Amino acid sequence: MNLRVHRYQQISEVLARHGLGFLVGITGLERWVPFHHGLLGHECRTQPYTNPDHLRLALEELGPTFIKLGQILSTRADLLPHQYQTELVRLQDAAPPVPDATIRQLIREELGAKPDEVFADFMLEPLASASIGQAHAATLHDGTHVVVKVRRPDVIPTIEADLDILQNLAIQISRRWDAAAYYNLPGIAAEFAQTLRAELDYLREGRNAKRLAHNLAADPGVHIPRVFWETSTSRVLTLERIVGI
Fold first, then answer.
1. Do the beta carbons of residue 148 and residue 136 sit within 8 Å?
2. 186-231 residue pLDDT tens
3. Rounded to whole angstroms, how far apart are CA atoms 29 and 12?
4. Is there a contact between 174 and 180 (Cβ–Cβ < 8 Å)?
């Protein structure tokens, strides 16, 4: 099945199951809703959740693109009522760890050698595992303690499909919902896509960190972790490890 078609079905099913029929209606997703769910999502409505709860749970279930979208919406008082903003702040960007063998293979592909050859020490058990990437503690051969961020190998196709779908849904909402006339929803979707694509490029993140460190170099109260470029690529980013609060 085409990935975009599969995602359209997933998105409509999840929204319907969480009783978010209004969103299904204004986005034109009703044709993708499984018949047994309907638009009210009765099976989920028996649980003691509010509408904001359901929106957060649905976004978490739909994965990284929608989690990031919810996190941005939580800051937009012009787009969402306060109770929705408050709930979306609770979005958890977490995911099961990537298998050890996959991490070893990815490091080898990106850095040209096995993790225990590139680093003096590399902990395969991640410090944290999120929907786009995960972080590993490691030590360079000169004894420097670092954190190595590794992007999940399978995340790009789904995110690209989701960004395309969100752009289409923004256009549909603009056509179907009168209140959308007050907002440039396609423009917001395009800006979100640009921001998320930038986040997927760890080299860009590294350059931003380097620029920030340069700009704040005169402030003794601020320390930006150093980027180790020789062990960084667009999918792997090695940063100085900072311990403390």
1. yes
2. 999 999 999 999 989 999 999 999 999 999 999 999 999 999 999 9
3. 6
4. yes
How far is the C-alpha of 59 from the C-alpha of 15, rounded, in Å? 9
**95 Cα distance to chain centroid:** 10
In the prediction, which pLDDT does 42 show?
A: 46
| pLDDT per position as a tens digit, 99-146 | 999 999 999 999 999 999 999 999 999 999 988 999 999 999 999 999
Number of CB atoms found within 10 A of residue 46's CB: 8
Question: Is the overall model pTM greater than 0.85, yes or no?
Answer: no
Closest CA to 19 of 29, 31, 10, 46: 46
Q: Where are the domains of the chain?
A: 3-93+155-198, 100-151+201-240
R_g (Cα) of the chain, nearest Å: 21
Class of domain 100-151+201-240: alpha beta
What sign has the CA pseudo-torsion 155, 156, 161, 165?
A: positive
Neighbours of 94 (CB within 10 A): 12
